[in-house]
Amino acid sequence: MKAKSILLVEDNPDDVVLTMRALAKSHVANSVDLAGDGVEALEYLFCTGKYAGRDPCLLPQVILLDLKMPRMDGLEVLRRIRADEKTRLLPVVILTTSSEERDKVESYKLGANSYIRKPVDFAQFAESVRQLGLYWLVLNEAP
After folding, report:
1. What is the reported pTM?
2. Are 65 and 95 in contact (CB under 8 A)?
3. Per-residue model confidence as pLDDT tens digits over 66-92
4. What pLDDT is attached to residue 11?
C-alpha cells in the first residue's frame, strides 16, 4: 500500500517553500506532490496532460488548495473535484491568504472540508500545518 500522500496546489514559490518547511518541521513524512496551479491539479487528479501515465488509483490522502491562482482558481478546482465521482470524497483543505468572507462561504458551499487562513508568522503557520497533518494524515479516516 502506498503511503498517504498530500497534493499541494500552490502557485506562489515562497508559499510552497514555507509549506514544505512547515511540514518538515512538523515531522510530516508523507510524500508531497506539487501542482503549480488549478489546471495542473486537475491534470494530476484525472491523469491527463503531463500526468497521463500516472496510476489513477493513487489519489492523495488530502489536497491542500490555494484559492488565488492563475489559469484556474481554487474554487473552480474544488467545483470540478466535487463534480466527479472518482474525486468527490477526497478531503480538500483550503489553505489561503484570503480573508474574504465570500471566499470562505463559497469554499464551504462547494464542499471544502476545511478553510485555513495562512498566518503571516512562520511559527503560527508551522503549528497550523502540524495540526493539519496530524488530523488529516493520522487521525482522519477517509472513505
Report:
1. 0.91
2. yes
3. 999 999 999 999 999 999 999 999 999
4. 95
**104: CATH:** 3.40.50.2300
Q: Containing domain of residue 60, as a range?
A: 37-136
CB atoms within 10 A of CB 87: 17
Letter for the amino acid at 115? Y
In a domain, 141, yes or no: no
**Both ends of the chain: CA-CA distance in Å?**
15
Q: Give the integer Cα–Cα distance in Å for 90 and 142.
A: 8
Helices (H) and strands (E) in the chain, counts: 5, 5
pLDDT digits (tens, 9 = 90+) for 45-61: 999 999 999 998 899 99
In a domain, 47, yes or no: yes
